[in-house]
Amino acid sequence: MKNIKLLLICSAVSVLILSACSSQKTTSIKIAEVTRSLFYAPQYVAIEKGFFKEEGLDVELQTTWGGDKTMTALLSDGADVALVGSETSIYVYGQNSKDYAINFAQLTQTDGTFLVAKEPKPDFQWEDLKDSTFLGQRKGGMPQMVGEFVLKKHGIDPHHDLNLKQNIDFANIPGAFVSGDAEYVQLFEPTASTFEKEGKGHIIASFGEESGHVPYTVYMTKQSFMKNNEKAVESFTRAVYKAQQWVENNSAEAIASVIQPYFEDTDLEMLTSSIDRYKSQGSFATDPILDEKEWNNLKNIMDEAGELPVDAAYDELVNTKFAEEVIKE
């Protein structure tokens, strides 16, 4: 008789546990990332370490390969959240969109490109670039705008002092540099370090160190989604913050080991050195807050490049409420 009672009690407890588990709803979030880059290491850490799952979020990650495609996915509801440069939110706002994108969590806070030369330049000075053939990035994109900003800071007019080439698609820039006549190029990691290891190029300067803090890559969502899904946006921001803190407090090698599944063609040693380069120059934001100084720096860079369509107010396109809440916790 005692065994029967015990069996009944265990059965009842099991039912209660299963019922409690089934009552915990999981929210699906579709993320569109502008490209696949180890520059976004904290995002992959958040997925692989289960930080999104801890917050009751089931994230689906898609790579949309370009700012225009990423924003199209967001605005057409092909994605709930976009990871892309903040400049894209200003472009959309400048088109008088009724349901424009709001920046709510910053992931990277510097430019992620490096100046790579075909030949070794042990005594490099920025003025050495004058009259050279320079393979630039897409017009209107953050890499190109930051590049121009840095060049101008060093007294170089990119459109008059250089033979500037901007007609190559982002994915084809590395190959075009190797096979073409360009003497200099802007490259992200791990491509820059890979080229250096293979003798195809030499890293001689960092655009991230030269340009200062800027909201280079940020999570954004439409006004309507934010209004109707505040809890999900807060949970998303909390997961991002957990990942940022984990990246800040762990070694480049540990980070590389976690995110290696996203970069199967890059060996662990190269991933580690590339991540270490980004960590050492403070590229990964340590919290999700996009502050007004960074926003103004972004607008200044866009204005210098002649790409600022409207003087977008910080309070209009940035919402730090969720970031501030999760940091307080």
UniProtKB/TrEMBL annotation:
One GO CC annotation: periplasmic space
Main location: periplasm
Domain of life: Bacteria
PANTHER family in alphabetical order: ALIPHATIC SULFONATES-BINDING PROTEIN-RELATED, TAURINE-BINDING PERIPLASMIC PROTEIN
Localization (cell): Periplasm
Name by which UniProt lists this protein: ABC transporter substrate-binding protein
Organism (species): Virgibacillus halodenitrificans (Bacillus halodenitrificans)
Keywords tagged on the record: Signal
Residues making up the signal peptide according to the UniProt record: 1-25
Similarity remark: Belongs to the bacterial solute-binding protein SsuA/TauA family.
